[in-house]
Structures are given as C-alpha cells and as structure tokens.
Amino acid sequence: MAFGKGCHLHLIDGSAFIFRAYHALPPLTRKSDGLPVGAVAGFCNMVFRYIEDAKNGDAPTHAAVIFDYSSKTFRNAIYPAYKENRPPPPEDLRPQFPLTREATRAFNLACKEIDGFEADDIIATLSRQAREAGGRVTIISSDKDLMQLVGGGVDMLDAMKNLRIGPEEVEAKFGVGPDRVIDVQALAGDSVDNIPGAPGIGIKTAASLINEYGDVETLLARAGEIKQPKRRETLINFADQIRVSKRLVTLDDQAPLDFTLDDLEVRDPDPKVLMEFLHQMEFRTLTKRVSEKFGLEQPVPVSVPVQAAQAGAAGGAEKAGGEAPSVEAPPLLPFDTAAYTRITDAEVLAQWLDEARAVGWIAVDTETTSLDEMVADLVGISISSVAGKAAYIPVGHVTGSDDLFGGAVLAEGQMPLDVALAALKPVLEDEAILKIGQNMKYDWKIFARHGIRIHPLDDTMLMSYAMFSGLHGHGMDALSEEYLHHVPIPIKELIGSGKAQVTFDKVPVDKAVAYAAEDADITFRLWDQFRSRLHRERVTTVYETLERPLVPILAEMEMAGVKVDTSILARMSNVFAQRMAGLEDEIRAIAGQPFNIGSPKQLGEILFDTLGVPGGGRGKTGAWATGADVLEDITTMEDEHPQAARLAARVLDWRQIAKLKSTYTDALQGHVNPETGRVHTSYSIAGANTGRLASTDPNLQNIPVRTDEGRRIREAFVAPEGRRIVSLDYSQIELRILAHVADIPALKEAFHKGLDIHAMTASEMFGVPIEGMDPMIRRQAKAINFGVIYGISAFGLARNLRIPRGEAQAFIDRYFERFPGIRAYMDQTIGFAKEHGFVQTLFGRKIHTPEIGDKGPRAGFARRAAINAPIQGAAADIIRRAMIRMPAAIAGLDARMLLQVHDELIFEVAERDVDPLIAAARATMQGAADPAVKLSVPLIVDAGQGASWAEAH
After folding, report:
1. What is the CATH superfamily name and number for domain 8-183+246-264?
2. Mean pLDDT along residues 150-163
3. Which domain of life is it from (predicted)?
4. For residue 304, what pLDDT band results from cuts at 50, 70 and 90?
5. What gap in Å lies between CA 679 and CA 664, rounded to an integer?
6. Does this model's pTM top 0.90?
7. For residues 513 and 531, what is the distance between their CA atoms, to the nearest angstrom?
8. What is the CATH code of the structural domain delimited by 337-537?
C-alpha cells in the first residue's frame, strides 16, 4: 500500500521502550545460559500490547520502531561534550540492545536506525515525509525532545499512561506552542544531554522571554533591551553558546533514509518466526499468550517460572505493558561425569566418528605429558559431538615399571596410539566436519607432530576473546563457571601439586576418563552457546577474519622455531657477569658500605635512611619501595642528592644487565629443543586485551632494542648456512593510525611526504626549522608523539625526559594546542567508552572497559587504556591480517615466517629468494588494511636482511 492521504504512520521510540522495560522489571536471566533478558522480556510485552491495542483503536497503516544506531552523531561534531555526562548503560543491559532489534523483526515490525543520526532525527524526517504525503503520524513516546514535531497532523502517545499529547499538552509543559519548543530548549539547556543553554535561565523564564520576543534570534538581537542586568549580561555573553544549543536541540528532518514510507506498511507477524524467537528467549508466559492468540501449539513444555520473575514482577510488568514475563526452558543439562565413555575398541570409536560425520562437528581435546607441545607425549584424546555425551580414548597412560628393563609400561585398557590416530585422521582433516577446541593451537600442534593437520576448526577461547576481551579471562575453567555454571574437575585432584606432582600419563586410566571427557563436553557446550552469540555481539567478522585463521599460522611458526647460536649466548653471559661484577664494586663504593645489591630492602635503607632521600614510600612489609620508577626519579636529583642519584643510576644499570643475563643469555640456552636445535616460542592469541600477541616460553618480544646489550642478544638468533634472516617492520604504525583516526592534517601530510615525523612535530610545536634541529628538541617531540598514544601524564613525561613536571606539562599543553584533533579524539573515545562500556578498533575489535567509570587512580589507568586500545588494537589487527595473508603471498619461495615481534615479522629465507621475499612480504604488509579500511595515511614497511636478527633489523 503506497503511503498517501488517509494513511496513518506510527513511529515507536525504541530506546524509550527499552529503558522503560528495563527499569520496570526485576532482573531476569535466561535459564539455559544466564543471559540477561529482563529488558527484552518487557520490550516484547510492550510491543505485543501495542500491536493488540493498535488493532482495537485507530489502527495504523504503516509503523516502525526507531532506534539509536550509536552514541555519536553529527551533534558531537558541533559540540564534542554533547551527552558526555550520560552514565554508561548498566552492564546487564548492554547485551540486550541487539536482542530488542531481533524482537522487533520477530514481530514483523520495521526496525530502523541510521549511523550518525539519532532516532529522533529519523522520526522527524519520517514525520515530515508523512505530512507532505497527506498522512497522519502518531509518535509513540513521551520524550520531550520530540514535542517540537507535534502539530499539522502529528501527535504523540505516551503508551505507558495511554495519554495523547497534542499542541495543548506541549504548551502546558513548555509554556509555548510546539513551533517554539526549540527556542525554549535552546535557552534552558538540558543537563541530561549536556546542552549548555543560557546559565541561570530555566524553562519558565525561557518561555516568558520567547513569548515576549518571538524567537531566540530576535531575543539575542534585542538582548540589550532586557531590564534585568544579570539576565541581560547572560544573553549577551552566552549568545554563541545559546545558538549552538539551538542547533543541538533542533531535530534534523532531512536525515538520509535508505528506505521509504512504503517500506513501513504494517504486516501481521509470522507466527512461526515469532514463536521461534520467544522460545529461544525462553519467555514462558508470553509464548503461551502468543500461541493462544494464533491458535498454535507451544513448541516445548512450559516450565515453572524462575524465582526472579516470581518475586514482585507483577507490579513492574504492569508498567511495562503486560503480564510479568517468566523465563522458561529446562535448566542447563547437568554434568554427569559417570556417564562418560572410555573408548578402547576401534569399532566403538568408528561409531562415535560416524556420529560426528552425521552432525558435521566434533569437539576434540588432548591430554599430554607437558605444556610444551614440541616435547609433549600424547596420553589421550577426548571427543564430544552432543552436550552431555563425551568419550576418552586413552593411548599413553603408564603404570609401574618393567623389572627387567627398568622403564614404565603401558597401562591396560587402552587403544594403540597408531590405531586411534589412523581412525581420527580422516575426520580431523575432513573439510566437511568442524573441529571444536579450547585453545585449539595447542591441540593442532600435538596432532601436527603426528602427521595430522586439523581443518576446519573453531576455538571457544578465541570466541570468548572476540566477545568479552577486557571483561574476564578466557580459560576453560573460567568460561565453564561463567557460562555453564559448572566447576570442572580440578587437575590437581589427578596429578597433585608441588614436588609430588606427576605427569598425566601417570594418572590411572579410570580416573582420567571423567576429567578428560568432561573437557570435551564443556568445550562443546561453550561452542554451542558462543556460535550464535558472536552475531549478537557483532564480532563475527573479528572472529572469522582476525582470530580463527591465525591459529594454523602461529602453530606453523611455533613449530618452525628459530635457530639460536648457544656459543654466542654463553660468551655474552660471561661478559654480562663481568659487567655486573664491575658495577657491584662501583655501587658499593658509591654507597660507602657493602650490601646485597639484589636486596630491595637493603637498597632502600641506604637510599632513604642513610643518604636521606626524601619522599620515599613503604610497601605492605614496611620496607622502602625501590622499583624502577622510584630509582628513575632519584636519578633526577643530581643537584640535591648527587650520591643517591649516582647510586640509583648504577643500580638501574646493574638490574638491566642482570635481567638480560638471567632472562635471555642464560635461560635461552635451556630453551633450545634437543631434537630441532631451535627455540620454539609460544604465542598467546588471547593474552592482551588489545589484540597484541604475547610470546612465552621463552618471551622473544621483550628483548630490549634501545641498548647495545639488548641489541647484541639478537646476534644469537641466526640463519642456517645458505639462508638469511629477513626482518620487515612497520614504520611508526601507531602514529599513522593516530593521524588517521584523529584526522590530524599536519601529521597526515608529513606521512604522505615522508618527512621525519618527530622533527616535523618539534617544528610545529616549538617553531624551529627542521634543518639543523637540535637533537634534544627532536627527542622531546618524539617522547610526546609516542607518549600521547598511551595517555602519558606530565609526571610520566617529566620522568622520561628528566625535566621538571611543569615544563613537561607545558610541552603537553603546547602539543594539544597545535594538534587539537588529538585531544578531541581522546575525549570522544573516553565518552564512547563510558557510554558503551567498550572501545573499538577500525576493524571492529571490541575491548571492554569495565573500570572506565571508576574513581581514583584506577580511573586514570582505565582512561589511558581506553585511549590507547583502539590505536594499538588497530596496529595489532593490521599485522594479524598481514600474517594471515602471508602464506599465500610467499608460496613458491623457499621461505618461512618465524617470529612476530609487535610490528615486526621475522623470516628465514634461502639466499636466492631474499629479494622476492622482501617484495612479496612488504606488499602484503603495506596492503593489510585493505579493503576493510581505507587509511588516509600510507603504511610503510622497512626491510633488512642478514646472517642474524641483529644484522637484519
């Protein structure tokens, strides 16, 4: 039906429905997974009652529910502080927002939102279009901001009070007619939306002024005529602020719609679609009402309402528009570890694998003798394809010892390893069967060492990471407790702890079955929940393009390892030992007495008690704090406390050398795999909230590069004969992302021209020419350029540059004056985090910020983390995209990717393929953002090659 004369359009304010529903009902959760659904339940009741009431009254011909797309709109460009004061939505409400959209569509109502515009602007645009087409409009809301639209065929309906709002009701509220509401609001302002208005002028005074002078512009033009001095001065002094306020409160009735009025024609709900949604949400009472309405049989038995719905829900539900919703569906399937199966027979295993083929998926978990996949022996494999049904295939448990040969012997009641792997291999490599795991990279490497390449796969740890980064950990035990309400069997019950701890192969098979099979069951159940939730959390693309594809890439890198020359490390250890001995003599000479330099307690007593350094702090034990930050501060006290300053500086040098020796030159020798002769680090995909990878066992990402000693350690990472190490490193990628996201013309221009960005910044800040610039000035600009990404404070900058805090603050102030877009970016990011509870990268990665609203020191840390996360996270996303594309890019070359160190990729390549490798890898890295994001600055990759990592970088 084409919209025209005689048509009636209903526009429902979706946000108003959501918040009224949320506050009207007690907390409700879905029984099956604990998902908060109280607001969704109330919302559904309100929509259902609306549909029923609309049919009985002045029925609409067209209708839509209008939502806010996001918190940021064109008004934030006009006034960055717009709505800044609004608190973030409650934690349990956030996951319900997308579900209300699903509910709207389930009721077959048009569901509309537009990026960059508020729901009110969409309502204003549709109201204008409907009036011009000769139709009528009813806005179902009580929002005062929409009252400027009333009149000329448009009215409002407060559905909660069943109260019609026309021109008379608007005038009763504002003291003026609808056509002058925006003038009154511009003067009075709005503390809720942080609209400044005219200080000291409220609604009544504003209405009086507008009734006398007609409109805001006339009033401001004649402000000098106002008799009251204070009011007159306010109008004159805050004229621009009032005009900005008017722009903020004026609804945009020209919003760019991607749909027409005709698309909003009323249609009856599809009963099956609606019932399926209500059943999925487990709304017992509403499901019953809808089924009775449409004469349908309920799809599942109705269960007893949960306690939360029973306790006092009726009164609240009445306000929300109907009977109190109850959460139905049986509780989560209980865990019965006694029901798990031990598989020792090939025919039984074949039956389980046939079931996996039939359903198209199988959860897999391995039990081994070590956390190091490169040396671990396979002890057993657990599988599950249905919740509550799991099996364990023991293959490597040992018992007792062989008296003749003195070694452990295989326990009875197991399947031969080769038989089990032969049966599993076709399934684990079958493209048609999805393999599900928790931290699947570990299991992938275990199977790869036995000639099996798992594909395709899903990883519940990475699903959780994509959805909940920053909220909690992603280990299986934590996820099981959080989402399945089940505490898994503790591993310590089987292997013990401390000196008495044994490896898993020593665990009796009968005891291992319950523990191991439970892991597969838990993993399957988590996957069953997470697979649909990814879409609701709007991170499916993040998981599918940045997380899951990285598993085999990293696994191959880790298995390849990197060659380390232990003779170089041994020589360096000796050199470091000599350096430390020399520093120890010097430190004790400065102190004037012998003491244990490795004892923080003794060092603190010398610095603060003997030498009298002021301002020290004590820890919980009462000992003086002597961390690196404390010692760095003392080094700046050369004028007041020269002896202490020298002592602190030498201790810092000693600590650095000691750490290099213990962490790298000594420890790395022990990490060389005896079979491969190489070091195999392990990358944690879900370790850092921002998406950065973390390297462990050993950590190869924290080798210092700013000191000669740290750089020398990289000399030990070498290429075999006939091959070369190639390093490709993004140049200042985080600064480039900052220039893009904050839209800083000067920085973007500098990057396009290939200028020295730090010299350019110094020139902009201090007004000095780039040519012949004092290196100290450039160093200061560099410290601010990188520091600002991490939300550096004047205190931190002063420490880095060893200058007074006041001078550091002046530098920062000057920086933001010259680049105001950076401050605006920071403010907007913090505001977004406060409103939504998370920040996002350019590629959609969510980093939750649960502490952003806290007070005290933690709030400062949370704000700095929120500012940095989208930048560091985007850089991490870009290099992930490059790594995922790299195998295809370098196919055909005798080369392999070995390491990732933040913004750098390390390759080992045959000498003849060095140049082609650099060309292919550089092109892949520089184009990694495309086509998802079109950066406004170029990505530049520096390349180097040599016999060692030190030569290549």
Report:
1. 5'-nuclease (3.40.50.1010)
2. 87
3. Bacteria
4. very low
5. 12
6. no
7. 27
8. 3.30.420.10
